[in-house]
Amino acid sequence: MLYPWQESLWQQWQQLLDQERLHHAILLLAPAGSGREALARQLSKTLLCSNGVTEPCGVCHSCRLFEAGNHPDYHQVAPEQAGKQIGVDTIRKCTRLAVETSQLGGQRIMQIDFADAMGEAAANALLKTLEEPPAGCQFILMAEALDKLLPTINSRCNKWRLAMPDEQDTRRWVGRQLMQDVKLEIVRINGCAPLATQAFIEQGQDIRYGNLLSAFAAFLQPPHLGLQELVGMFAKEGHHSLSWVSYFLVDCLKLQQGAGSFLVHSESLPLVQQAAAAVTSPLLMNQIRKANALHRQLDTHTGLNTELLIMDWLMGFMPQPKL
Ligand SMILES: [Zn+2]
Predict the structure, then answer these.
(1) Where do the DNA polymerase III delta subunit C-terminal domain residues begin and end (predicted)?
(2) Which of 51, 73, 151, 241 is most exposed, with minimal Cβ within 10 Å?
(3) Phi–psi pair at 227, nearest 5 degrees
(4) Could you tell me the pLDDT band of residue 24, with boundaries at 50, 70 and 90?
């Protein structure tokens, strides 16, 4: 099943399928939380179907195997753990399967979710197969953005970008799914990706996000109370909470520079105003930079003392003792 914002891209693919002009390696650029897997599955199912050309018939042996998750010629590659790299061994296994004959006599599909999680060795292992594509083998790669992929991989693929609905459409769609009002700022911090926004609310992250922002804005006021509790909230929420507050601090900076109509947090204006009045622009810029660096650091290195590092960053908002 496809989502409404995927229809137009799907129609373009259907046209290529109809004309037998689909490239052997598709690269789908779309954020996580866009439902991109559904689009890749629809294409795979159609290619594998013994009856349909531009649409899976849903009744043939292949379609039934696909729906049951047992199709022997449909191979999905993903990191073993979310957020981790796809190893070179995983890609080698995939390229071996790519040159074998199909079990059902049709095509073989190699779907690489999170292609941007391939390390350099893995990407290089894939490259050779992409350069000399085996007959009857379709590659479908998915990634968030081009800049996270090796240029040599990019250049071998036919690239498609899945456009996200605009923020109002996303808000309406998520609102209908959950039967509740959805704040635009929640849509925005989720990059307008509808499924990401929906999951954010379903998991109660929107409420925890609101609590964290309130506690953070209060802490920014002298005499900077509640440091320990705030560190606890950040640590419990994980690294992405640093990107949340980074959006918030950028809003404070925009307000100070008179760009108040472009705020992400348009629904939390009082909080932004309060914080913007308490922190100077140079300090804001410095702390935003540090928050982004810390986020990257925590993402790439395990075993760091998260609480200590976050506390250190938060203390950067407090007046420094004179020596
Ligand atoms: Zn079928």
Answers:
(1) 209-316
(2) 151
(3) -60, -50
(4) very high
